Amino acid sequence: MVAHASSRRRAFRLALTATLLGIASGPALAQKGGDLSGVWQTETAGSTVRIARCGAGYCGTIAATPGPGLDSQNPDASLRSRKLVGVQIMQAGTPSGEGFEGSLYNPKDGKTYSGSLTPKGPDTVEVAGCVLSVICKRQTWRRMR
Fold it and tell me: pTM for the whole thing?
């Protein structure tokens, strides 16, 4: 009877340890291993961005935007009348920590910033655009299903 009880305790401890390890590592695995490809809703302006694999990282192009959707703030005057849908605004090709680093184009001001793309879960990603790698603006984008 003593051997049987110790077997059950050992099995229980093993199951508990496996469960705790699964809970602790689940979010990290989802962040690192999840594919970010898909259509994402931006936090502001009602735009959606299609993220797809691009080399070792990801690229993002505008899939939809409200209003006339022109690249009116582009520093290149010849591009100011182009439609934003289809314009690549993100190139996050360098793996870094749990995410990717690269550049982000902001059509609202026509500037390109250093940026990052960091998964926060299977359906959320943090997008950050930075000036001098110090002053950053962040948005949380949500995957559209």
Answer: 0.74
